[in-house]
Amino acid sequence: MASNKNFTFTIQAEDPNTYARAGLIHTEHGDIPTPIFMPVGTKATVKGVLPSTLEHLGAKIILANTYHLANRPGADLIEEMGGLHEFMHWRRPTLTDSGGFQVFSHGQFTKLSDNGVRFRAVDYDGRYIEWTPEENMHIAEQLGADIVMQLDQCTPYPAERSFVERAVELSSSWAERCYRAHTRPDQALFGIVQGGMDMDLRLRSLKHLEECGDFGGYGIGGYSVGESHEVMYESLDPLVSEYMPKDKPRYLMGVGNPTTLVHEVGCGVDMFDCVLPTRIARMGTAFNHEGRMNMKNAKFTHDKSPLDPLCECPVCIQGFTRAYIHHLVKQQEMLGSILLSMHNLYFLLQLMRQARTAIFAGRYKEFEDEWMSCTAAKDY
């Protein structure tokens, strides 16, 4: 494991009445204030949104996906083009996940062993591919993101305890091998805590990660995979607030609905990512402080209001009306998806900026209570 001395995490403020904290992650490509929502650019693009627009919206770091980029255009080509930052013309920090979630979503086309995983790229050319943790780290180093994730096995919900237990053991073993194989000094490697909804397995996973190396931070995987919020919170809340290392960034993977973000910041989560804001945008849905809005609905036909009167995103400030966006969505014009993506991304980025401000002011509990009492909270 290469030591990355240029990657640091500093806690700048802690809320006195919750576990919320505000921090600063320093990377080779810039600083990331936390708590932070990270837009997802799966295939080296946040769909329909220019990098310069993402910067204008306030994005500080974006994600890309190792599985998809390794298949197309290929890690060799991206390395040849100067790495992910140059390839996608994004000069700020990046994070690549391991692609493990996508690999294991292939179900019957996936075969596990202690050595690694063999899978069929059914969504590409159909060929069989074998990944070891070492190969996965080599691809991550070729892509060149500032933060990379270990190869792990994400379990669905519900799942037999024996299956989850085996996944924890495998992920722990792979974490050790990823840690040894990772050599690029300008990247930070994060371990991933697995264990399903079983608290003892979560703690076993975390203990092994702490013992096997000095990871730059910790991802929390295997949530938002079909369980209710109540079931999620039962193990996630104490895991974060009571057991995870306090001096490392905590990254809740694949979770992006506003209410969960607000709740989990209060438990001490620092980083979030999700395709939700752009995916629902392409389906014609907008975030709003009163709840989600389906812009296909005929009630917006003559509505001259902005998407959200409380929002200061470019879409709302520049005067794009609900009536116009309704028209675009109904006609399946690509601008509709683009405007909604911009609005939805800003909504989550701004929510995290407001959370950070509340932490510095020592009033995060009030901020959380205000959100939970608004009509939108139950809609997300």
Describe it for me?
The structure is a single chain. With 380 residues, the protein is of the alpha/beta class. The chain has a single domain (8-277), classed as Queuine tRNA-ribosyltransferase-like (TIM Barrel, Alpha-Beta Barrel), CATH 3.20.20.105. The protein is 41% helix and 17% strand. It has helices spanning 51-57, 66-71, 75-80, 84-88, 100-104, 133-143, 161-181, 199-212, 229-243, 258-265, 276-282, 314-317, 322-330, 334-360, 364-373, and strands spanning 8-14, 21-27, 30-34, 36-39, 62-65, 94-97, 110-112, 117-120, 128-131, 147-149, 188-193, 217-220, 250-252, 271-274, 285-286, 293-294. Strands 4-14-13-12-11-10-6-5 form an eight-stranded parallel beta sheet. A three-stranded antiparallel beta sheet has the order 1-2-3. Helix 6 (133-143) packs across helix 7, helix 11 runs antiparallel to helix 14 (334-360) and helix 14 packs across helix 15 (364-373). The two termini are 40 Å apart. The relative contact order is 0.14. The mean pLDDT is 96.
List the keywords.
380 residues, alpha/beta, TIM Barrel, eight-stranded parallel β-sheet, three-stranded antiparallel β-sheet, 15 helices, 16 strands, 41% helix
Largest sheet: 8 strands, parallel
From the spread of the alpha carbons, the general shape counts as: globular
Radius of gyration: 20 Å
Number of strands: 16
Sheet with the most strands: spatial strand order: 4-14-13-12-11-10-6-5
* Mean pLDDT reading: 96
The computed structural class is: alpha/beta
What's the helical proportion of residues? 40-55%
CATH architecture heading: Alpha-Beta Barrel
